[in-house]
Write a structure and sequence with these properties.
Layout lengths: L1 H28 L2 E7 L4 E6 L4 E7 L4 E7 L4 E6 L4 E6 L4 E7 L4 E6 L6 E5 L4 E5 L6 E6 L4 E6 L5 E6 L4 E6 L5 E6 L4 E6 L5 E6 L4 E6 L5 E5 L4 E6 L5 E6 L4 E6 L4 E7 L4 E7 L4 E6 L4 E6 L4 E7 L7 E3 L1 E3 L2
């Protein structure tokens, strides 16, 4: 009887150990990291979003602004506007493994969802460049006027959308041959640009008239939503229901119901909020605050600011900066 009892205890203990190991493995697999470009000190801060703290700081080239990350490639690509280059970070080793020279002033950057091409907006050179993200060779380029800034690629990787700040419009390119599909007039000085998760809606963030243009990508119809002072970037929730917009001079984030176009609430975050991304693993929104060297964390379920994380000097994080590890 005693032997059977001891065997049962061993079996229960073993089962508990397996359960604990599975839980730890599951948590590790489902974590995510934020890569925050810090223009002021030429670094990238790496935030462990499960631990809610900065766990690494990576030196890059001069004045990093844009960021694009890939789980499949295990890379983070960083535009350095003053050194005319792109730093390539291996997200496993957390080290810069390549510097790609770019003649001009690279600002916006985006990876195709299929990871086959990297697109870079040359701000002063008025062009968009296509770069192979594995060989780092330039594949194509096209003139895009004026002052191309934000850039995003459709979910099917077939179209590239660019905010042309100084011509007050959005340029849509065919990703295959770089031909212009359409140019759409939006608000004054569009800078950030974003898509809904299903690609059916395009969002142009119009800095000078405090609006967001919500554009139907099937028929190009649009409506404008008024937000707070000097909006900059936006990100949509994965369920296509909510849009989050940073307002740089209001130190806030506007939370918009995508279906109705109604501003649901305005959240006070850090000083001069710029880049913004959605962390689908933890269901939260991350906001880079340029003016106070921090990242605000918003709980997307409650739309409340729940944390502030210190990063480097003058964080921009212009682009998609959250990397999921699962």
């Amino acid at each position: 009887m005693r032997s059977r009892f001891l065997n049962l205890k061993k079996l229960l203990g073993f089962s508990l150990l397996i359960a604990l190991m599975s839980a730890c493995t599951s948590n590790t697999q489902q974590n995510s990291f934020a890569y925050i470009t810090n223009q002021g000190d030429h670094t990238v801060s790496v935030i462990d979003l499960q631990q809610q703290k900065t766990v690494n700081t990576i030196a890059v080239n001069t004045a990093p602004v844009g960021i694009a990350v890939s789980h499949q490639l295990q890379r983070a690509f960083v535009t350095n506007v003053e050194s005319a280059s792109i730093s390539v970070i291996d997200t496993r080793s957390q080290q810069v493994i390549k510097s790609i020279p770019v003649k001009g002033s690279p600002v916006g950057i985006a990876l195709a969802p299929n990871d086959a091409m990297l697109y870079v907006a040359d701000w002063y050179g008025n062009r968009v460049i296509a770069i192979d993200p594995v060989t780092y060779e330039t594949q194509n380029e096209v003139a895009v006027e004026k002052a191309p800034a934000g850039i995003v690629v459709s979910p099917d990787s077939q179209h590239v959308y660019i905010a042309a700040r100084d011509s007050n419009d959005v340029v849509i390119l065919n990703a295959k041959d770089f031909s212009t599909v359409k140019r759409l007039a939006v608000g004054a000085h569009p800078f950030g640009i974003s898509l809904s998760a299903d690609g059916s809606l395009l969002f142009s963030i119009n800095v000078y008239d405090n609006t967001v243009s919500m554009i139907n990508t099937r028929n190009w119809e649009q409506k404008r939503v008024t937000v707070a002072d000097h909006p900059y970037c936006a990100v949509a929730s994965p369920d296509n229901k909510t849009l989050y917009v940073t307002n740089t001079l209001d130190e806030s984030v506007s939370v918009i119901d995508i279906n109705s176009g109604e501003v649901l609430t305005t959240l006070i975050v850090g000083e001069t909020p710029e880049g913004i991304s959605y962390d689908a693993v933890h269901d939260q929104v991350l906001v880079a605050n340029w003016g106070e060297n921090s990242v605000s964390v918003i709980d997307a379920k409650t739309n409340k600011v729940i944390n502030t994380i210190a990063v480097g000097d003058k964080p921009r994080a212009f682009g998609q900066f959250v990397l999921n590890t699962n």
